[in-house]
Design a protein that fits this description.
It is built from 11 helices and 9 strands. It has 381 residues and is of the alpha+beta class.
Amino acid sequence: MDLTLSDEQRLLRESVDRFVAETFTADHRKKTANDPLGFSPAVWKQFAELGWLALPIGEADGGLGGGAIEIGILMEAFGRGLVSEPFLSTVVLGAGLIGACGTEAQKQAILPDVAEGTLYLAFAHAERAARFDLAHVGTTAAKSGDGWRLNGHKVAVLDGAAANHIIVCARIANANGASGKLGLFLVPAGTPGLALRDYARLGGGRGCNLDLNDVTLPADALLGDGSDALPAIEAVVDRAMAALGAEAVGIMQTLLDTTLEYTKIRKQFGRPLSANQVIRHRLADMAMQVDEARSMALRAALMADAEPVARGRAASGAKAKIGKCARFVAEQSVQLHGAMGVTEELDIGAYFKRLLAFDTLFGGSAHHYRRHAALSGRAHA
């Protein structure tokens, strides 16, 4: 297996690293934190001009046809800069679902606008009772005349308030009222019956909870031909977890670099902290955890197009392992900075919060250890 980057991938990494380092300063982050959207539309437009929004979209749909490795390169750099732009929600999840499930007309109507940066998407799937089980969906979609009527509640919708369209997952009711297959419905922002409660997410960005009360939609709001959407949802969420893993690696690497620099200049009893052997051992442990996490994120990206069981095992394995590594690196970094690590004066606290948020998105380590064991045919307590 050749793990070296191609010339194009290396150029992509250099350009995104340079852009993120120049743009996403501490001042920029403070400014966007106060923005109602939680990000800068001007910077999003620059993402579009650089081709990053078109990167994972298929060439037939106006994109560049990039894969999970290219998304990982972007996301690792985004982690370094604590980028809060809705790349995961709009491009990885939203455009990914439309590319996988949408009809040709739906793809042509939406994906070119996503690539140009003029359309934001969000994916409303999680529910309180589901406990991260993607098949557990209580929201219902019933036939209503020529269209559909949706009822239910969704939580933790990433960037839902900024989205022009929200892709809502609902269980399609059969003629006898029994629960049937899952469907994905394109709900425009401001549709009557759609109530949205927006909130700031830990570590930057925004999320929202949704209430759907007799939301009436036309027949063509259903994505695709009406076949069960669960396999496509699982595939897109596995890709999203690989992308999140790469972002976490970028955050962890920044914490390691910052902590290493701090221990060289911070003196105690007339000597730098890094001269202390115990401190060196802790830094070495942090570096090992970062490398392990990077390997797991890369494996999840390489397996993104594998058959479902292998892909799911790689994604869950990465999410579980990186979650453990991330917590270790974040806690060590805060401790080695002393009380300064949790003040607003340093960025360490912001990176720490983003890693805590990473562990809860799409399920924490315990959930994914169980899923990995189930996919491997073994029980896990």
